[in-house]
Amino acid sequence: MYKDRDEQLSLLIRVCSRYAPSRMLSFNMAHVIVALQLMGRFERASRAMLMRELMLGEGSVKTMIKHMRMHGLVETSRAGATLTSKGKDLYSRLSRVMVAEARIPKCSIAVGEFNYAVRVKGIAGAIRSGVEQRDAAIKVGALGATTLVYRGSRFIMPGSGNSVYIKEQDVMDRLKGLMPEDGDVIIIGSASNVKVAELAAKYAALTTLLNMLYHHNYNNHQ
């Protein structure tokens, strides 16, 4: 499991790495994930669609697609970008880790007007206090993130062991609709824009996975 995730995340890191003497890149792993999802869902994504959904400029989208093409993930034509077999494989494998997502309305457990939840499979052991996820979300322009651990059919606040009280029934219904299983984590990105909230939740999830793999690999080499 770790080796498989390591390979996926290493590939994402390479796609998001700049090549000297290029400028600092304005896209990150979350942008690449959403691009993969758009191409997986619609088969083809135009540059205009990617600019709109990722909130990136034309130059940034062109650079991102170039990097994805360099690593064999996409093919391009005048109509847009499509996933190669390698891209489809990466999309499929990542979908088995970040397994469900949903928009969450303004509520008592999130800090933004717009909120977006991502369910990440089996990473409860990597969660400490939730501060790491909040900081990752803020790094990509969000207001913050709320992290919920699912244990014993309950949503638990990280580091406390206490059940989270969710007073809004529609929010509870949406979170339950993600079909969490014991040991899963739900990360809710919060922002003043739903697209930023989505990118924040996915960036926080990916950052958590990277930290999890780093500590696993570090301990294995001690």
Give the key terms:
5-stranded antiparallel beta sheet; alpha+beta; 2 domains; Gyrase A, domain 2; two-stranded antiparallel ribbon; 222 residues; Arc Repressor Mutant, subunit A; 18% strand
Characterization of the model:
This protein is α+β, with helices and mostly antiparallel strands and 222 residues long. It has two domains: 2-94, Winged helix-like DNA-binding domain superfamily/Winged helix DNA-binding domain (Arc Repressor Mutant, subunit A, Orthogonal Bundle); 99-220, Gyrase A, domain 2 (2-Layer Sandwich). The chain contains eight helices and seven strands, in the order ααααββαββαββαβα. Strands 3-4-7-5-6 form a five-stranded antiparallel sheet, sandwiched between helices. A two-stranded antiparallel sheet has the order 1-2. Helix 1 packs across helix 8, helix 2 crosses helix 5 (85-95) and helix 2 packs across helix 8 (194-220). The relative contact order is 0.15.
